[in-house]
Amino acid sequence: MVADPELVQPLIRILPHAYPLPPYNLAESVCQRSQILEVSRVCFISSVLEQKQIGTEAGQMIAAKSAHSTLSKYESYWKHFISFLKTNKLDVSEHVLISFFFKLFKQGLALRTMSAYRASLADPMFYGFQIDTNSKVFRDFFISCRTRRPITKTLPPQWEVYKVLQYLKTSQFKNNKTISLPALLLKTLFLIALATGSRISEIAHSLCPVECLRNWLDITSEWPNPNNFIWFNAATQKPANNRILVLRFRQLINLSHAHNTKSNFHQIRK
Fold it and tell me: What residue ranges are annotated as transmembrane (predicted)?
């Protein structure tokens, strides 16, 4: 079957505009490419779409199609990928992207996390470099990763919220005016975490997180705090990092249970 020239010629004229080449010449130096890729993920996608003659506002909507929290996570993954390119002086290509995913696998990342990296890079790779992260080579790679590192099922929490709430009603924690500072930290931290999860209906009256937080802020208001932190190590009066908060969270759960139990801070939202 011979193609009709009258049909082919219009397509030849249209296709270069509908599907242009990648916006950046592959012959560019690594330094130039690295400088170009230093823009944010959303800006990169929107600028590429604009070069594809998609309107600026429409391109920005497409680039920022995900929720704000998802975009923030994707941005951190994007920066990690750009750092990988710059450190190894690599250009963007399909095999380089596979190498990046393989590096993540060798570092021991869970498959769920690797899949999140893949999702974050899908749009910039597709729009900017015509690399489809759902093509067979990527599907086969992730199947191989799953075979070698199966996804483990998340076990239900081994501790119970009501036991902690009952424990917070004991004499050691009940009175917010006379409570010790370390105990106030445990109580406030737990109730704030609980209030921002899905168990706010279980918090009432004597277990009000607002009152606990108010007392905590009053007591710590005179402590050195140039960066306006909320949480401190009660022993050192220094700002508490994530590790300290997790340890305090686990401490309260272990205190409220008769037997030792494994606890995870994220389980507060279950």
Answer: none
Confidence of residue 78 (pLDDT cuts 50, 70, 90): very high
CB-CB contact of 63 with 46 (8 Å): yes
- Which phi and psi (to 5°) does residue 125 adopt? -70, -40
Read off the pTM.
0.51
CA distance 81 to 93: 12
Q: Comparing 208 with 194, which gets the higher pLDDT?
A: 194
The sign of the CA dihedral 30, 35, 36, 39 is positive
Full set of structural domains in the chain with CATH: 21-148 (1.10.150), 161-269 (no CATH)
Condensed to tens digits (0 to 9), the pLDDT of residues 224-243 reads 887 777 777 777 888 877 77
